[in-house]
Structures are given as structure tokens and as C-alpha cells.
Amino acid sequence: MAAISPTALKGALVAPTQTLSNEELGATARRIRRHIVQMTSAANSGHPGGSLSGVEILTTLYFRIMKHDPKNPLDPDRDRIIISKGHATPLVYGTMAEAGYIPVDELKTFRSLGSKLQGHTVMQKPPGVEMTGGALGMGLSFALGCALAGRLDKRDYHIYCLLSDGDSQEGQTWEAIMSAGHHAAGNLTAIIDRNHIQNDGYSDYQRYPDANGNRPKRPGGWVMSGGGHTANIMNLEPFEDKWKAFGWKTWHLPDGHDFDALTTALNEARAHTTQPTVLICETTKGKGVSFMENNPAFHGKAASPDELAQALKELSD
Amino acid sequence: MVQTAKTEATRAALGPTLARLAGEGLDIICVDADLGVSTSAIKFGEAFPDRFFPVGVAEQNMIGVAAGFASCGKIAFASSFAVFAPGHCFDQLRMAVAQPGTNVKLVASHAGVVVGEDGASAEALEDIGLMLSMPPFNVIVPADYTQAVQAIETAARTPGPFYIRTSRPRTPIIYNDTHRFQLGKWDQLRDGRDVTLIAIGELVVAALQAAETLAPEGIEARVLNAASLRPMDRDALVAAANDTGAIVTAEDHFVTGGLGSLVATTLAETTPVPMEYVGMRDRYGTSGTWEQLLEHFGLTPNAIADAARKAIARKP
Predict the structure, then answer these.
(1) What is the dihedral of CA B139, B144, B147, B151, to 10 degrees?
(2) Cis-peptide into A305, omega within 30 deg
(3) Would you call B173 exposed, middle or buried from its count of C-beta atoms within 10 A (0-12, 13-18, 19+)?
(4) Which of A158, A285, B123, B210 has the smallest number of Cβ neighbours within 10 A?
(5) Does A12 map to a domain?
(6) Burial of A118 (0-12, 13-18, 19+ CB in 10 A)
(7) Secondary structure class of B308 (helix, strand, coil)
(8) A21 occurs within a structural domain
(9) pTM
(10) Going from the N-terminus, what domains does chain B have, and what CATH number goes with each?
(11) Residue A262 lies inside a defined structural domain of this protein
(12) Which chain B residues in 248-307 lie under 8 Å from chain A, judged by CB atoms?
């Protein structure tokens, strides 16, 4: 299937066509996934797992929800997506390439000397990347600043912020959650790519299968899994209740890869203007590539040439 | 030019200056972490409540929020005590401000041992080192209230990251209203040919007093106010080394990472001359009145004069 033409987004800042079918979005998502595994393998480094988990989230935002214009990426009235999980550059650049911000060919320069596409995000390199990222926990504060500036200037843009499990463990994130609730930042929506896996292993037991394939809840503490990964790094639950307690309106999406659910929740969140809003999206780390799914090993490791061939086979149209 | 009859704290310059500039139409906002009364930022909040954003005691968030505002075109000020900002938020200043060059101005008060009674944990002696470690931050330490007003106005009108260090006690006003602070320019407050005393903050007055002490001994000391630490005045420094052949630095901060390091690094690659340091070395502050602490830690006119004699004796 042909790429969605960037010219479809050219001109006025209106939300991109809502008439794109789920099949068309799915095809775009598959191309983004292929970019992710190809970019990281070409660079022989990078973060494929947490990039693959957020593909449907960014695809829905860029192709169904956000007002933006790749021909005018600094338009002051644009919606903004702040990437707090700044290591997910393969996801960000892959999506921006499909949306017309980056030539697809440039993706192969990822992480190499002289490329605009560094390993972690750099503000406005390329134009459209809203914030420098890499150290977790900083995105939501930045997003809140953008949201409050929009309110002060009486602009009707909306701010989105993509966070990870690890982001949600940083103290600064909770400072930002508290202050966004205090300031009732109704033009701010946080989106959690809740894949339950981080650098050293599993955030909590929910995605850690035991010998029987069960995912029991167990008390805290440090435990090694059979695969050499930590099995209980830091439990975030009751996660949704915490956001609520800080004054946020919440949505819990049991399947963060479902375009319809994402579209509905994002539209409802945008329409809810009296509180900041958050979508907690249950996602699968490494989604779409069988040997990467729920596998902490691919948090920060690229596929080998053989693995890449297998991944591309699984991601073919 | 120099007057010493009146006193005022440099920290008192922030709020009134921001309020005046916003009144003139500058698109200023200020993020505050529950110390606006002490840093004087609250005066801006009283004048422009819709442009003043409290975030509670959350300095990391304060810097991130300010950077977000800046990315949307605002002149974003943030203020706290120097132990908390940059102390609490080096990483946020590095990633959200320094690297992308966002238009954030951090004005930190209560720096140095002159904080006084609050004791060691409240006395920032590392902040200049932290901020000088991060290009492209402009780093300014005003010597008095008048210069603080000028420095804040310069920061507001100049795009890019700024750090301005102010302090708690009322100190002598040495500049009159005709003073114009210039980024990258060190003021020569007194000329001399035997030694140059380079000082920042409240120790500028101490350096002037040291020069008075040395004069009857036949020692003519040049005095430079190095308020603009970055950009620094390389020409003035090299000229001072060439003209006087000996240098003394004076600061209420660790010599390592502070004015002493900055001057020594530059002299080493240009015009090495004998150099002595007056500043904090290898120990933290403590409680006492601010005047007692300056005396206790040897940050005094007499200490500067002694250092000058030593530097002169080391001339080849």
C-alpha cells in the first residue's frame, strides 16, 4: 500500500482526515514498525522494544488527531506531542518520516555522525521534534509549560505528552502531575505507553510469566527472573488511582494498540477541558515482532541481521 | 560612579524589574517554587498574576515548565535559592535549557556564605561551577542592587539561557543610576599598575577597600568587577595581567569551579602571572551572621590585601 501522502496534511492546521480507515492506519503502523527495526539494526543500537509498543499511539495522534503541518512545523497554533521517553527515537523518527517531516531515506543515517537523527531526541532536529529528551521524567513539565502558554495566549492548541513506565518512576513526573492538576491544565493530555518493561526487566509481575505462564501479583522486593532480568523493578499500581488523586481525568485502555479505542479516548480527552487528562494504554513491548514481544532484552538492543530478516517477514503487508 | 552610602540586597531587584519590563510589553512569565517572597519574584506576581505560575516546592518541575513556556515564545524566568536551583535541577537545566538553548532565565538568590544563620546546607558554594560547566548559559553575578537590575533587564532582552546569582543581605550600592551593565565587559573600578584585584558579588566592595588599604604602602591595585563570568572579558583580563603582572581573585564561592578557576584557566593559556585566590576552599559554610561568616572564612578586605602582597612578592 502506498504511503499516506504528506500533501494530505499540507496547508491549514486542521486535524488530519478522520476518514482514514483502520486498515490504512494499520498499514502505516506496519511501515513505522519496519522503519523501527531497520533503523536500529542499521545503527546496530537503539531502542526497538519501547518504540514498537507506542506505534498505534503515535499513528493515531499524527494521522487522526493532531493539528499539525509538516510544511510549517513551527506554526505557533500547532498541537504538540512532547516525547518524554526520549529514547524512543526510532518510533518518533519513523512516524515523522511517514507524516512527511523526514525523508524516509534519511532514516538510515540514524545514530551516525553528521545525522540530525541522534540516538535521543534533540529539540527541533529535525523540525517537529518539540523537546530534547533522553533523561526520563522531564517531558510532562515541559508539556505543562506549553499548555499554560497556550492558555495565556488564548490559542486553542492541545498538548500531548508520551510517557513510559520508567518516566512514571521519576519524581519530577509526579511534580508535574501535581502542578498540572493544580493549574487545571485542560489542554494537556498525557499518554502512558504502559508496556510494563524497562531497562533491567519487568516493572512489575503483571507481564512476567512464571513457570506456568501465569502472571501472579506478588509483594515487592528484588527478584531475578529466569531469563536474567529483574522481575519487579518498581510497581506503579494502583496507577490510575494515583493520577485521579492528583486531579486528572483518566482513561484506562486495556489494549493500547486498538485504533478505535485510542481515537475515542483521545477525542474525549480533548473535549474534556476542565482537568488535565491521561490515557493509560496497556501495550506490548516489542509489539509485532514475535521474539521481541514482552522481551526485556530488546529494550536497548537491535536485531541481528538474521533476526531483522525474521522481523521484516513478520511485519510484511 | 561609585557610591557606598546606601544599601540594598541584590535579590530585591528581581520582582520589581520584571514587573517594569512586562509593563513595557516584554512577554515575560515567571515560574516560582514557593520562594517568591524571599527572591522578590512575588512582586512580579502581584503586578501580573496571570503571568506568575507557582509550582510548589518542585524546582525540577519549575525548570521544565519554564522551558516549555520558552519553547512557545515566552521570556521565561524562574527563581529560587541557589542551593535549590541549580542545586536540585542540574539535569533539567542541562537538557531542557542549555542543550536546546531555550529562553530561560534562572535568577537564584541566597548564594554564598552570606546567607548567614541558615548554615551550611543553605549556602551555595557550587552554583557558579555548575552553571559555568554548561554552555551556552550566560552567567552573571551582580555586585550591587543597581547592577542586578541591569543584569536582569539584559537577560530579559537577550535571547538564550541566563543564570543570575543574587544574595540575601543588604550590601552597599556602588553604582549610580547611570550604570549600564554590558554582557562580556568587566568594569574597571580603580586603576593601578602593581596588582589586579578581580572580584564578584559582595566581594567587589571588599576589593575596593583592599585597594585603599594597599595604597599607603605604595601598592597601586587595579580593581575589576567580573560580574559577567560568561561571556567573560578576556581582553580586560589579559590587559590586567600584562599591565600589573599579578592577579588576585575574590569570591564567595568555591575557588574550584568559580571565578578563581575561570581566571586561572584563561591566564594559563594567555599570560601566566603570579595569582592568589580569596574564596572558599575545601570546606562548607556554617551558621553565623553574614558579616561574621565573611570574617570567619577570610573573605575580607584584609585577606584580599594579604593575597595581593603575596602575589606581588611572587613576581619574577
Answers:
(1) 30
(2) no
(3) buried
(4) A158
(5) no
(6) middle
(7) helix
(8) no
(9) 0.94
(10) 7-172 (3.40.50.970), 187-313 (3.40.50.920)
(11) yes
(12) none
Closest partner CB to A148 (pick from B53, B62, B95): B53
Q: How does strand B221-225 pair with strand B187-190?
A: antiparallel
Q: What is the pLDDT along chain B (316 residues), one digit of tens a residue?
A: 455 679 999 999 999 999 999 999 999 999 999 999 999 999 999 999 999 999 999 999 999 999 999 999 999 999 999 999 999 999 999 999 999 999 999 999 999 999 999 999 999 999 999 999 999 999 999 999 999 999 999 999 999 999 999 999 999 999 998 999 999 999 999 999 999 999 999 999 999 999 999 999 999 999 999 999 999 999 999 999 999 999 999 999 999 999 999 999 999 999 999 999 999 999 999 999 999 999 999 999 999 999 999 999 999 9
- Which CATH number covers residue A117? 3.40.50.970
The helices-and-strands tally (H runs, E runs) of chain B is 12, 14
- Interface check for A122 against chain B (CB to CB < 8 A): the answer is yes
Total domains in chain A come to 1
Q: Any bridge partners for residue B278, and if so which?
A: B250
Contact A146 B69 (CB under 8 A): yes
Query: Using CA atoms, how far apart are residues B97 and B90, in angstroms rounded to an integer?
Result: 10
User: Chain B interface, mutation test: which of A83, A161, A172, most B Cβ atoms within 10 Å?
Assistant: A172
Question: Whole domain around residue A42: which residue ranges?
Answer: 26-314
Nearest residue to B129 (alpha-carbon basis) of B39, B10, B262: B262
